[in-house]
Amino acid sequence: MNCKEHHLPELELSTGQVKEALQAILHTILFIRSPGPVAPMDVNCEGFHWTYTRIAYDEIRSQSRNKQHYLDKKVDSGIEDFFKNLIQIGPELLSGCLTLSFFERRESKQLFGLVKHEEKVIWEQWILHVVVNNTPRPVDDDTASRMERQRIQDTAEAMLKSVFLKIFQYASGVDDRIVGTTTSMGMEHDAGAIAGCLDHIPPTMYEFEIRSTKKVNDRENLVSRVANMPALLNLDGS
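Above: the chain sequence. Below: its structure as tokens.
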């Protein structure tokens, strides 16, 4: 089975925004890729004008034999490891890479079938680069400070929206390599190609893991940052 990689647009966030943004992203993907029917629960972000859907708490408790918030602990633990693995890339700037992997465990026999071996087969990975900006926000109440705070917030929300749009695109089976056809109703995609982009998902039960790495691909980092660069702020209001 080939592992399919989904590279999400880069995020640049202030330190206080990172945890909630990563929780929203990870829980959304886990809900979309949940093996079997689950109960949904909508969560309103406190730091963003955004609502996402995750697996409901009751569903987590029932599937984990009353281990309270098992899914939350695993997600939060992955985010804590992400913070520990951040590297300095500039003044007040840190960078890290978070990977959410889905895998299944397969049992194989070796040495004429006398030895059993269990291997972990990863079939899908979601990869996200994050830049953490520690630059202090302006706290004054003058016009320039208010505009700068709003600019920072708008930029973060635009980047987060870009990530979610890409998640929904990948989850629906529309790969970047699929060429669409423009019609009067918008963009249409070949159904056979879409089905082919989803056939890597195993029909059996599978698991997930969250890992952080310090290695960042400079070329991907530059391309992603340019593609997601916000429009310049026009101070004269025109």
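The first strand starts at residue 4 and ends at 7.
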